[in-house]
Amino acid sequence: MESSNIDPQTPAQSKGLSAETAAYKLKTDGFNKLTPPPTTPAFIKFLKQFIGFFSLLLEVGAALCFLAFFIELFEWSSLDAGTRNLVMDNLYLGIVLFGVVFATSVF
Q: What pTM, to 2 d.p., does this model score?
């Protein structure tokens, strides 16, 4: 056990470690400082927002809206020119749903 100049009865009057012990500890252990905890990069935090339950629910809904729109688009392209009437509701709803997911991920 290393000896020190600490007096347990009167610690305010203690002189601390000897100069040799302090120099040895500084050499072997380094400076007495805390290392910061590891941090997660901002883009990883941003991407993690996309895998929450509600976000996944909205993303699936948006994907289904896009799927329905493209199915309707392919059916529309096979119709005669006189009977073509493309409804864009599914496309707009898919864009809005993905917009909501993106907005909640940013804030």
A: 0.60
